[in-house]
Amino acid sequence: MGAIRMPAYSVQAPAAVVMVRPHHFTVNTQTAIDNRFQLMAPPRSDLAAAAHAEISRAAEALRGLGITVHLFEDETRDTPDAVFPNNWFSTHAGGHVAIYPMKAENRRRERRADVIEMLKRSYRVQQVVDYSGLEPDGLYLEGTGAMVLDHIDRVAYAVRSDRTDPVALERFATQFGFEPMVFDAHDASGAAIYHTNVLMCIGTEFAMIGLDMLSDAARRQDVVARLERSGRRVIALSPAQIHRFAGNALELQGRDGRILALSATALAALRPDQIAAISETATPVALDIPTIERAGGSVRCTLAGIHLTPR
């Protein structure tokens, strides 16, 4: 691997995140119908304790790299996916926060006033836009799960699904100044990919994406061209790598440069040449969260990046 360049600050890579540590973790039966990444195995008595320990270790590992981690506790029993806060809110440069409409009824209870109040206390927040009122109309947009945002080039990449309604996406894109780029993606069985952030990750100077899973060849070329036009190196991931969460990663700004936070499962799925390409501009950091991954999401899902200016 080549030496890591000391990068300048990037609006793409937040230096702070919100994480939620679950006390009663379980796999959400309400989301299993369209999340093929979930493992609906019989419940284990140690599942909650294992998930609690995994988030605790992941938060400490990130803090050790100089990343600010705002760690919230979830002690309720009716929010099985609370460990994935990136779906219900996102933050944006200029002091903007979005709150999103969620498809599963039990996921709507994940929205927390104390998280928003912390953001207002600790960061410069000018505006909070709440789209959750779209839920009664069946219009869903599950945050940075439904969208993978290019904060530099202002593009919102989105896989078409029940969790990414085009009306809700258009409203967000217009209000927050993003160009929506929608495409279809399916797994080998023909099932639609449920969230864009399991399919792709956008860093400052690279993008990883499961190109073979994009259904339309012409649209696939459009996506690659758009990513390359933004100056990024495109790293193609295979469907097998996607199913091992290799696309579910997040670039962060650490004390000594940018890192790519991903799971141990994901890192083990990457080839040496792919790791070398990432390592040219960001250091891969593996967080071991196999219990959390049973719920159908990985490291990126557990991190809600904070793109706000500290007070």
Automatic annotation (TrEMBL):
InterPro entries, A to Z: Amdntrnsf_FN0238 (IPR014541)
Pfam families, A to Z: DDAH_eukar
Top-rank taxon, per record: Bacteria
Gene3D superfamilies: L-arginine/glycine Amidinotransferase, Chain A
The protein's name: Arginine deiminase-related protein
Source organism of the structure: Pseudodonghicola flavimaris
